[in-house]
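Fold it.
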Amino acid sequence: MRTPPPDVDEARTLPAPVLIAASVQPVLSGTVVEDESNHEILDAIDHAHQQLIAAEIAELVGILRAADRWKIDQDAVGAGIERLIQPGHDGTPRIAEFLALEIGALLGISQTSALCRIGDALDLRHRHPKLWQAVLTGKVRVWQATKICLECAHLSRSAAHNVDAAMAASIGMLPWTRIMKALPGQIIAADPDTARQREQARRESRRIRISPIEDGHVSIHGVVNPVDGIKFDHVLNEVAKTFPTEPDTPLCRDLDRRRSLAFGMITQDAYTKLHREKPLLDLSETPSNRLPQRSTPTTHEPIGCTLIVHISADDPALDPSPTSTTGVARIEGWGPLLTEQLPHFLNGANITVRPIIDPVGIRPVDSYETPARMRLALEQRNPVDVFPYGTTQASRCDSDHTIPYIDGRSSQTHLGNLGPLSRKAHRAKTHGK
């Protein structure tokens, strides 16, 4: 029997979560009994949710206990009957091959799926110790932790530990979408050399592929230069804005449809310039399928595309020393890049350098409206809705006064009393019970 590593002692001594039978019976008729208060209904939902989390943790701990204690016949190993395998990634122990058969039968899944489940559990415990503790305390769901582990699977154990440490402050505090949005940058920062190798491999796999016709349409998938991709996205939006939006133009009733029409218009223009003749295909057979006329003429002026790039002031790539390493630059709305890749990314662009906004230097104002500079600082400090688990971008939120604004009082509008709230959350805070 394999001796478990010392860092799993706490998991083996951790008692399995206790499941308590729910005391609230579901109402099958779809109505709520009259004597049941709103608090009781919410308590029942919370109770069921906690039961679900406890069951997930109990299953996870059980799988790890089985992996730690499973006995293996050394004679079988020597004879090639059973093998020791490593279902996890760098830094995880090997386990007995046949354990997956037992786990799969218990969970009602295939042995391959069971092996993946065991590997995920070992990755979590050995490569992400802080995340592992957050799962045990119920701060992070098992499926969420598994997704993080899979995103870091290509990293070494030490690099995975670096990601784990960088995430520690946000685990259980920030909404899941914000954690996952920050994860790619943390992965790059944890191992720049691996990030550089993956970027090179991705560059060599650039492609554009068109699917066969399905339901009268094709799908387009591809991997392209990030500059080209961002510019193309911007051009699609700009061309889409030129199409009419009246009710009698159903093909243009939303932005997605207008973008698809813009793609066709761009392709048609390019095809005509190449062949100097009418297109060989005309799919606009019926009036409802014809491309609508654009409301404004085509312009050949260059279309500007504004991007905001965030770089830390202590980024090692800013050091002119030839031996300096690289950090992470975050392209707002798009994702991270190695800072050393910025010269190529920004080649030919007009660059405006803005210093860090110092909140201390922004003085309170007496008006209810938030000044532009204060609003910018607010959005940088709180990039999304501050309502619990909010995901709405701050740029689309209201600037809410935490302590309600009262006419006549001075200096109420300041960063210490402001937070971005989505319109719905703002209405609930102002008018809800």
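The longest strand covers residues 207-210.
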